[in-house]
Fold this protein.
Amino acid sequence: MSGETSELRTVTVSEKGQVAIPVDIRKRLNIRKGQTLVLQVSEDKLLIVKSDDVSRDIKDGFRHLLALSESSGRELWENEEDAIWDNA
């Protein structure tokens, strides 16, 4: 987290429960009209994250598992003992 800055801002919740993200924050975070955001509630805190970022983080988090499963699959299927099944 080094190098990250933190900023506090206030917004007002409308009757419909809506909040407006200030334009300077939308520009800085490249949040566009119609973009999907994810709301995460942790105890009494609310975190808003772009869904694209969440998807990328999930993929990155599972990348090592995919590599491991591919490696394990090759070991299981690409061995001399199982070659007999290929000729049947």
Observations:
- The mean pLDDT is 80.
- Residues 23-79 form one domain.
- Helices lie at 23-29, 51-77, 83-86.
- The longest strand covers residues 37-42.
